[in-house]
Task: inverse folding
């Protein structure tokens, strides 16, 4: 009985390997997958424009931020705040909400910055929870892990400091959100 | 018996894995990149356009400091301050102090002027801060300076007081004439005092001005002051004998 068992198991393992290899190299399979593509303001991690005028908008369903929608940019040698750190839940650049049924750890980064001329803190995002308490900040070269319970919203205020830059600087980049 | 369960498990595992090819991790990760455009541009192109005057002169009123243009899509509320130790002898022309409030609708421009006293230290800049807030709580501030302060080259005023006495019977009348030289466009008026009491102001500048009927008599002191704004540019006195 024991020999039979070993033989059968060996045969199955062999068959499995062969089947797996052949599937990888040549098998064609059709599988149905229910993947709805939705806008950022109704996704698994919802990103919604905040209250700072036309600065944050949804374009083709994606959150898009343009710090100076009616002009070519922000003045050099200035400090700008998009939102209100004193009242972040009512005045903010955008919100992020965990709409899944489970708590998520969401990592936020600012990447692909065009040219900050070495001033990695020139664009700083501050994240607040729904009580207005600061969770932390992230900017170019740093990340922030945000623990968001199911249904929890976070509010983001952006500060831009263009001091110590010249007009060749371009602080444009990508807000990267991963969970 | 035990081996049978292991055997069944292996069969089920391989069958399910093979047939369904489940990627357990596929739905457990999420990556989103969202663009943020933050260009840095010059003051003339910026969200709040600032067109500076690079030079101001001492002793000048209504000198252009900066023209502010709202290049954003919302109404801007601007609070301008003169800052640092340099605010002495400088004021905003409209408000007469070191603070100025401005409201700008989109694309609207306004020019801000300053008065700079004659005695302004030219080694000190004119520093100012522009605080702005838009309707939607986008806010910011910018500090700017006028670094070139020039002494004006206007000839300072000078003057003379002439006294004549005409005796009539046992008494007489004093006639006071005075002349003021220099660039008369640089002063506003001439004030006349008798014994430190103000008598009259003159706004028409001639070579010689008669101060008639000012009540001055023996041993009174007559004083003239040449005034620009609140500043006395020149003064001279004479006592009548």
Result:
């Amino acid at each position: 009985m024991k020999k039979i068992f070993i033989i059968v198991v060996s045969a199955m393992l062999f068959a499995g390997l062969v089947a797996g290899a052949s599937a990888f190299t040549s098998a064609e399979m059709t599988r149905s997958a229910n993947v709805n593509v939705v806008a950022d303001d109704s996704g698994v991690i919802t990103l919604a424009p905040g209250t700072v005028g036309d600065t944050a908008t949804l374009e083709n369903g994606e959150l898009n931020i343009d710090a100076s929608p009616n002009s070519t940019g922000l003045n050099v040698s200035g400090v700008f705040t998009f939102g209100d750190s004193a009242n972040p839940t009512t005045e903010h650049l955008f919100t992020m909400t965990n709409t899944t049924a489970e708590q998520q750890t969401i990592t936020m980064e600012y990447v692909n910055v065009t040219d900050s001329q070495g001033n990695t803190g020139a664009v700083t995002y501050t994240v607040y929870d729904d009580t207005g308490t600061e969770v932390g900040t992230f900017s170019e070269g740093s990340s922030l892990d945000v623990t968001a319970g199911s249904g929890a919203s976070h509010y983001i205020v952006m500060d831009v400091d263009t001091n110590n830059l010249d007009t060749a600087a371009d602080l444009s980049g990508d807000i990267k959100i991963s969970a | 018996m035990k081996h049978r369960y292991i055997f069944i498990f292996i069969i089920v595992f391989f069958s399910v894995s093979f047939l369904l090819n489940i990627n357990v991790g596929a739905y457990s990760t999420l990556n989103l990149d969202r663009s943020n455009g933050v260009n840095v541009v010059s003051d003339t192109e910026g969200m709040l356009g600032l067109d500076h005057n690079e030079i101001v002169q001492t002793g000048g009123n209504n000198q252009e400091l900066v023209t502010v243009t709202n290049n954003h899509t919302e109404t801007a509320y601007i609070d301008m301050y003169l800052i640092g130790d340099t605010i002495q002898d400088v004021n905003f022309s409209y408000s007469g102090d070191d603070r100025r409030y401005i409201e700008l609708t989109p694309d609207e421009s306004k020019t801000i002027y300053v008065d700079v006293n004659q005695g302004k230290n030219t080694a000190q800049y004119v520093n100012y801060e522009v605080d702005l807030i838009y309707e939607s709580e986008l806010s910011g501030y910018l500090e700017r300076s006028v670094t070139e302060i020039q002494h004006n080259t206007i000839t300072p005023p000078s003057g003379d007081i002439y006294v004549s006495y005409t005796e009539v019977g046992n008494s007489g009348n004093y006639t006071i004439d005075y002349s003021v030289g220099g660039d008369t466009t640089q002063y506003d008026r001439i004030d006349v005092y008798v014994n430190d009491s103000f008598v009259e102001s003159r706004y028409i500048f001639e070579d010689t001005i008669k101060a008639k009927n000012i009540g001055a008599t023996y041993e009174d002191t007559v004083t003239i002051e040449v005034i620009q704004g609140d500043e006395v540019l020149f003064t001279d006195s004479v006592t009548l004998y």
In short: Helices of chain A lie at 2-26.
